[in-house]
Amino acid sequence: MVIILKSKMTITTGCVQCLLALLCFSQVESHNNAQSVAARTLNGYIASSKFRKADSLGTSTSKDIYVNLGPVDKPSQWTAPGGSAPMGVDAPAKTLAVGMIWGGSPPKTFVSEDVTLRGVDCIILQLNALFELPYTDRKNLTRKALFLLSEDSGARAEGECGSEAQFITIMMFNKAVNYTLIFSNSSDGVRLANSTLRYNTRRGGIFHNAKGETVSLHLTWVSAKISTAPGAFFKCVLPSFLHYEEGARVAVDNLRVVAFNDNNDTEHFGGGPATTCTQDVEVAEYGVIKTYISIFLTGIVVVLVIVYLIRIKIKQRRKTSQQLHTTVPINESSNATQKT
Length: 340
Known about the structure:
- The protein is an alpha+beta fold.
- Helices cover 30% and strands 31% of the residues.
- The protein has one domain (32-279): Porin.
- The chain has helices spanning 2-31, 33-42, 278-339; strands at residues 52-53, 67-68, 108-114, 120-136, 142-149, 156-161, 165-172, 177-186, 189-200, 214-222, 227-228, 233-236, 240-244, 249-258, 274-276.
- It has a 15-stranded mixed beta sheet that branches.
- It is elongated and about 105 Å long.
- It starts with a helix and ends with a helix.
């Protein structure tokens, strides 16, 4: 009986340990859930294993080269987060989850200095960005150049700090590609009001076999609202997709931005509170709910295991007591026989 009890205790203890391990795993999973969601969202967004970084050089290396997706001859297949809208990009069969969030690539920070406010940075922008720019080649075919803006990029920024509107322009590939974000200010807060992509396909070395033209594209829609309350900064770990005319796209993640800033605390984006994007909040809430459910289920199982062990112990005591009551009469009968 003791051996059986030990065996059962070993099994149940092992179950408890497994459940506790499962709980810890679920907590780690919820902590990394934003990264996994981002990976699934952008997996398929990138098509190739080599990328050209948006630096200020006109040359490439075998490790970091630009990607040219070639002529567009298929309908849209990619979707925005949640599948709510088509991305409109033709991806080859080979896909790669690019090293943005999940690859540990730190975001790059840009500032727009307001010289009228004694050197305070009115716009502080931090992000990873993946650009897809359409252009026309010499055969009049539509092609797309794909490149990544990362922390070690040599891209630079300039901007202007107005009272009602402010902008910051990121200049890449020796100003061959210029990316502008325009923010507006009202009593409701600060929001991304517009954005433009302007690039010269004759320059930069990223537009292979280009016809040679200057392209200027305006923002058409954004997959996630980029806006903050007055005095706050906006942050979003998960990807946001900005769509432009002619099918151009920019995927942004690890985004932090503050505009109309009047605080010199650049490191903390003006030092104000953070406004978190909707997708980050939803993922965080999902992780919390999942953790609570795991804790609840683990608690139930632990209680059941304890009750089970108590019942086994009681049963063992009862059986031992019965064995003692059975043994006493036999001994008394034996003694009586000897006396006779």
